Amino acid sequence: MLSHLTLQDFAVVSRAELAFGPGMTVVSGETGAGKSLLVDALMWLTGARADAGIVRHGAERAELAAEFRLDDAPAALAWLRENELDDGDGCQLRRVIRADGGSRAWINGRPATLGQLSELGGMLVEIHGQHEHQALLDRGQQLALLDAFGQHAGLLAEVRDLARRWAALDRELGELARAGDVGERIAWLQHQVEELATENLDAADLAELAAAHRRQANAAGLLQGCQAALARLAGDEGLSVQRLLHQTRGDLQRLAADEPRLAEVLGLLESAGIQLAEAAAGLERLHDDLDLDPERLRRLEERLARLHELARKHRVPLDALAARRDALQEELDGLSGAGERAAKLGRELDALARDWQAAASRLGQSRAAAAARLGQSVAALMSELGMGGGVFTVALEPLDTTRPAPQGAERCEFLVSANPGQPPRALRKVASGGELARISLAIEVAALGLDAVPTMVFDEVDTGIGGAVAEVVGQKLRALGAERQVLCVTHLPQVAAQGHHHYRVSKAVEADATHSQVEALDAKARVEELARMLGGVEITKEVRANARQMLSRAQES
Questions:
Q1: Nearest alpha-carbon partner for 134 in 430, 416, 470, 453
Q2: How far apart are CA 22 and CA 15, in angstroms?
Q3: How far apart are the C-alpha atoms of 155 and 145, rounded to whole Å?
Q4: Which end of the chain is more exposed for a tag (fewer CB within 10 A), N or C?
């Protein structure tokens, strides 16, 4: 329940602090005084997008704050705890809107997003605007109202989930169908994979192939080079390197007795001799392994040519052929199972369609029962609102579609007859604005209080009515105030008199600036305000007496 509302530099309000209690609170004032600003403030506090135009002229920012008690809002309290924004059993919403259009929001002193404000606000406040009846002309809104009246949230969620799952599988099946004849693609892929599979495309094998080709292509030069090196080491062209090294080492050994430091040199020469011997042995083995084999060279060149041709064909580097082969194999595996997948999808779609039909049938039966109850309730209220003999029915029509629809298997149309003897017609075709306002109000009153939102706000929903009908509307709102906190902005004295509490918004010009003030009215001030709403330019004692009687009669009920 809303307990406090604070406005600062908001439109024409410099500062206002309002306290609210249970029951019905009415807000009245002259036209243009800013009665609906309180409603606007609650809208911005519950997630409406910022508008720099609401900042009072000359101010840097507008500040709005609302405090709620949560003993009647368990869903909101649970949400706060889940989001770690709770602070005891109360809740404070605060929003600052700057003159440059920027804004910030807080929930219980912690920064919050507009999405969070909107989600939480929907559990705290429900706002009905003065043009609410226009939304009721939309058939989608009519179906949503019927579902709210019938409390179909669970059934509707099941139907929507089944329709969503069916649509997802249907899209997947459509994508398989749009792929066309996959048989040709499968045959092509099989040929490409088989062609690539005949070659060893591992990186190590490709590296060895390239090295073997280089060896064969340069075998003659390698043989000649190895032979020349071996000849020099073996001394075919004179003293061998090893013999010279041996002689040098022998000469230095004879001198080492006179110079001990030669021992290190002798050690190095001995190591060099060992390495020369190993080098010669390695050259001999390499020479023996080398073979001028023109046939092997031809085979190596043919294989390299095939590989390079494959690389050009698939437009990838040689070392990427293995990855290309794997990708083609993966696609082939996927397409090979396309037929089985399509068959499986078909079976799953049939099963979901049957489940949806069963769920939609349960929803439709509940809708039919709710439609009958709503029709009876609204017709009774129409009679109380001065439309005796009027008829209201909710017609359900099957949807013309072969696809599971998220909203169920039917749509609805509100049909009304405002006068006895006339056949019911679609609500959207009712010509009289006054009749439409009263019928819409009857529908709203019949459907009110079905959710757990503790605070309901009505912004001049009584437009277009007056007299005894206005008094009935006030009585209905007052009765609703016994179950919910009701905040009602009105211009009708018959409605204002029904309030448990009363605020008046007035406008004044000070220092060339317009200011709106909000003040709580006591019993005497309420009589004066009702007299102003009843009377004209001059308020007579008779008008005051009428106002006093109206207030007394309303408060006794």
A1: 430
A2: 24
A3: 15
A4: C
Phi, psi (deg, nearest 5) at residue 430: -70, 125
Burial zone of 182 (CB within 10 Å; 0-12 exposed, 13-18 middle, 19+ buried): middle
Which amino acid type is present at position 530? L
Q: Which helix (H) or strand (E) covers residue 486, if one does? A: strand 485-489
The CA distances from residue 62 to 44, 104, 225, 383, 518, in Å, are 11, 11, 93, 45, 17
Of 487, 427, 435, nearest in space to 457 by CA: 487
> What are the φ and ψ backbone dihedral angles of 432, each rounded to 5 degrees?
-75, 125
Q: Are 14 and 514 in contact (CB under 8 A)?
A: no
Hey, what amino acid is at 38?
A: L
* Residue among 516, 444, 456 at smallest CA distance from 42: 456
Find all residues with CB under 8 Å of 462, minimum gap 6, and list them: 441, 470, 473, 474, 490, 491, 492, 495
In 385-466, where does DSSP find H-type helix? 433-447
Q: What is the pTM of this model?
A: 0.60
> How is residue 12 written in tokens?
């024409």
* Both structure tokens of 40: 């606007």
Residues 6+ apart with CB under 8 A from 112: 85, 105, 106
Angle at 436 between CA 431 and CA 437, to 5 degrees: 140
Is 93:117 a contact under the CB 8 Å cutoff?
A: yes
Coil/strand/helix, residue 145: helix
pLDDT averaged over 10-residue windows placed end to end, the chain, 557 residues: 92 88 91 81 87 85 94 90 90 92 92 92 81 70 88 93 94 72 71 82 78 62 61 61 75 74 79 79 66 64 78 84 84 69 84 95 96 91 80 91 91 86 81 66 72 81 73 85 89 91 85 78 92 81 89 83
